[in-house]
Amino acid sequence: MNTDWKNFEPVLIPNIKDLYKIDVYEKNGGYEQLKKVFKDKKHTPESLVNEVKAANIRGRGGAGFNAGLKWSFMPKPDGGPRYIAANGDESEPGTFKDRVIFERNPHLFIEGSILAGFAMDITAVYVYIRGEYRDQINMMQKAIDDAYAKGYLGKNILKSGFDLEMYVHSGAGAYICGEESSLMESLEGKRGYPRVKPPFPAQKGLWGRPTTINNIETLANVPLVVKNGADWYTSIGAKTHPGPVLYGISGHVNRPGVYEYPTGMLITDLINDVCKGVRGGKKVKAVIPGGSSTPPLRGDSLDGVRMDADSLRTAGSMMGTAGMIVMDEDTDIVDVIWRISHFYHHESCGQCTPCRDGTGFLEKTLIKIKDGEGEMRDLDILLDLCTQMEGRTICALADAAAWPVRYAVERFREDFEKRVKKTVYAVA
Amino acid sequence: MSQKYEFTKEELAEIEKIKAKYPDKKPPVMPVLWLAQNKFGHVEPEVQHLVAKTLDLPPAHVYGVVTFYTQYYGERKGKYVLDVCTTLTCQVCGGYEILHHLEEKLGIKAGETTEDGLFSIQSVECLGACGYAPMMQITNGVYCNHLTKEKVDKIIDDLRAGKLPEYENMPFYQHGDPEPSKS
Q: Is B182 on the interface with A (CB under 8 A)?
C-alpha cells in the first residue's frame, strides 16, 4: 500500500501547461510509446494484451473489470472490421472526471486508444461523448484532427502498415447510453435500448462485428503501462485494484473537484485533507463513494474505509466511477434518495417492466414519505420493491435504482421513520 | 408554420462527410439531427422529415430517435434554454434554489417559455459538472458553474443584451496546491 500519497506526482493529468496541445504533449514524451511499439517493435499485439492484463487496469467506468482480460475476449481477426467504442458518456450523477481528460490531456487517451487498437487489430475507434459536453467534444475533435495531421491516425500509422480511424460521436442526453450495449445502439443511430447478452460485444458488437467498449480513463492508462511496465502499475495504490485514479469529489466539501491519486485512498483523507474538510466544519452524514448508483455509507462508518474495490465491498458499497458525493449533517437523506429515484425513473428506457414500473413506484412511495403522508409499512414496500427489481432486467439500471433506496432505508432508517406516520392498525 | 426547411449545399456536403464515418445509413441520424437543430433551433416534425428524406430513412425512425434523447427539441423552445441541474450534488448544493430564483425572476415555471420567446427553463438531470455545483447549461452549450443568485441575475442581464457567457476553464487541484494548477 502506497501511503505516501501526499508526494504522488499525477501521471494522467500531470501539471504541465497547455498539455492539451499536441506539440506540448510530444515534447513531454507524448506518442513515444506508439513509436516504441510501431518502430522498435517493443510489443506484438499478443504481448501488449498480456502486459495490460498483467497490469490489472480495472475498468474505470464502474464495473471494475480487468481491461486486458476484456481485450483478450476479442476473437481472432478474420479480415472484417472490428471496433472500439470509447465510453465518454459520463452520465452517472457524481461523475465528472473524463471531461478533465478531454480538457487537459486528450492525447494521452488518443495514444492509449491507438495502442489498444493495435493490440486488438481494430479498424475504427468511436469516441462516444455525452451531448451536453459540447465544448469538450470540440476539444476532442481538435485533438483528433491534430493527431491525424501528424500521422498518428489514419492509413499506415508511422509506416507500420497499421490503419486506424477515430471518430467522435456526440450523444444527446440519455443516461442509459453509458451502458455498453445501449451505447452501441446509440452509435448505430437508434434509440438507446440495452441489448440482451449474450451475445457479448466481443462476439457481436457494433454492426454485428467484434467490439470492445472501454472507459476513457481506462484507455488513458494504457500508454502509462506500456511506458513503465505492468510491475510499476501494480505497485501503485491498492494491491487488487491498482493504478492512479481520478477522484471526482463533490458536495459539501470546501474544495470540490477532480483529483488524481492512487487507488486505496482513505475516504477520510480525501474529505479532510485533499478537499480541505466539510463546509462550515460540519460532520459528515453520508458519503456516496462512486456515483449515484453505489450504496451510500454512513458518515460514522467511514473509519479505515479505502477507495478500492475490496475495501469498499467490505464496507458495503462499491468503487463505481470514484465520483464521490459528500453530504453534511444537515442533509435530508429522504429528499436525496427521492431525487435519486426521480433520476432513475426519468432515465429508465422502459424496455423491462420491473424497471419501468419499479422506478416509478419507488419514486411515488418516496414522494409520499417525503411529504409526510407515508406510513411505516411503506418502508417495507420500498425494500420489497427493490427485491423485485434487482437482477430481473436486461441491464443494470434497475439495480442501480434499487441499491441506493435499499441501503439508505437500511442504514438511515431513523431518518425515514421520523418522516412517516405512526399508524396503528387494530387487529380483529 | 409554412416555412420551408432545407439544407444548403455546404450542409449537404457536411452530411456526406458525416455519412463517411459510418458503415451503415442509420448512424448519421444523430449528428445530422444536431446539425439541423443548430441551424433551425428545433427539430419539429417538419425538420424530422427533412432529416429522414436526406438520409433516406423512414420518418418514424427519426421521430423515435428525437423522442428518446432529451437534448433534441421536438417542439420549439425559447432562444435561450436554461437547463438547471437539480440532481444529487446540485440538489444538495442548492440547485433548486437557483431554479426557483429563475422561475420567479422570469415569471415562468420549469418546462415553460417566456412570452417574448427569449427564455425557457428546464429542470434537468446530472450534466456532469458535480464539482462545480450548482450549475446550469445554456441551450445545449456553455456551462455556467458555481451559481449564486447574483451570478444568475448577471447572466440573465447579459443574455438579454445578447451576450453569452464564456467557457469557464475549471481548475484542477493537486495536494498542497493553494491555487489551481496552471495547466
A: yes
Fold of A240-328: Ubiquitin-like (UB roll) (3.10.20)
Q: Tens digits of per-residue pLDDT, A150-163?
A: 999 999 999 999 99
- The identity of residue A386, as a single letter, is C
Which CATH superfamily includes the segment(s) A5-234? Answer: NADH-ubiquinone oxidoreductase 51kDa subunit (3.40.50.11540)
Confidence of residue A190 (pLDDT cuts 50, 70, 90): very high
User: Beta-carbon neighbour count of residue A36 at 10 Å?
Assistant: 14
The architecture CATH gives domain A333-417: Up-down Bundle (1.20)
Question: Which three three-digit cell numbers place residue A131?
Answer: 451531448
Which site among B18, B90, B130, B175 would you substitute to test the A interface, given the most A Cβ atoms closer than 10 Å to its Cβ?
B130
CB of B140 less than 8 A from some CB of A: yes
Instruction: Answer for the pair A377, A397: CB distance below 8 angstroms, yes or no.
Output: no
Contacts of A353 (CB under 8 A, 6+ apart): none
Residue of B nearest to A6 (CA): B175
pTM score: 0.95
Question: How sure is the predictor about B177, in pLDDT bands with cuts at 50, 70 and 90?
Answer: low
Q: In what order do the strands lie in the sheet with B119-124?
A: B119-124, B80-85, B136-138, B143-144
